[in-house]
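Methods, example record. To illustrate the input and output format used throughout this study, we show the complete record for Oxidoreductase. The sequence lines were provided to the predictor; the line carrying C-alpha cells was produced by it.
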Amino acid sequence: METTKKTVLITGGTEGIGFELARLFAKDSYQLILVSRSEEKLHIASKSLETEFNVKVHTISVDLKNHENTKQLYQDIKELVGEVDVLINNVGQGEYGKFLDNNVDRELEIIHLNIGSYVILTKYFLKDMVERNRGKILNVGSIAGETPGPWQAVYHGTKAFVNSFTEAIRNEVKDTDITITLLRPGATDTEFFDKADMEESKMVQDGNLADPAKVAQDGYDALMAGKHSVTSGLMNKIMVGMANILPDNLAAESMNKQQKPKE
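The corresponding predicted structure is encoded as:
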C-alpha cells in the first residue's frame, strides 16, 4: 500500500456523509482513521476504501456516547499514528417524537454523543494542532441547529450547540494557521432517519433528501479552502436565511409542519 503523508480522523465514517468524506480524502491519498461502534461496518468500509484507492485505513470500534471512551480514543490514536492532520467530527444521532414522550436516557445519550464527543476530540486534537500551528477541523453541524425543531427537540438543540461552538472556537484561533469549518447539511439520504425512527415524518415521506456525496463534496471543498462555514444545497441556504429572519415561534411552527407524521 502507498505510504501517505497526512492523516484524517473521521467519526461516523462508515456510512452516509462520513463515508463519502472518507472517499474524498482517500482519493487525495490521506491515511484514514475511521471510528464507529460497528466492527462489521468498519470492516466493510475499510476494505472498500483500501481496494478502490490503495490507501491505509485504520479502524477503531468505540462507543463515543461514553466520555471516558472518547478521551481514551485520543490516546489510542496518538499511539497508533502520532499526529492527526485533519479531524472530522461527524458522528450524530437523533430521536424522533414529542419531547414529553421520548425516553430521557436515550435523549441524554444523544447529548453525550452529539455534543460530548465533539467537545472532547476537538479539545485534545486542537491543542496539538495549535502547538504545531497546523491542522484542519470540520464539524458537521446542521441547518437543524439554526431553528427550533419540534419532533426532534433534543437533536436540534445539540446541533445548535455544534454550530455556535464551532464559530466560537474558530474565532479563538483566528490568529493561527488552523482552519475550523462548519458544514451545515439539510435532510440527507442516510440511515439517520431509520435509526431515529423518523420514517413517518412528512420530511422523509416526501422524499426530498440530499445526496450524501454532494454534501460531503461541499464540506470537503470548504474545508480545503479554509472557509468558515458552508450550507449544502440551495434550498437549505434559503431555509437558513428564513430562520434568521423569522421569530423563533414561527420558525418552530414551520419546522413542526415539516417534521410531524405525514397524514
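Annotations derived from this record:
The two ends are 53 Å apart (CA to CA).
The first strand starts at residue 7 and ends at 11.
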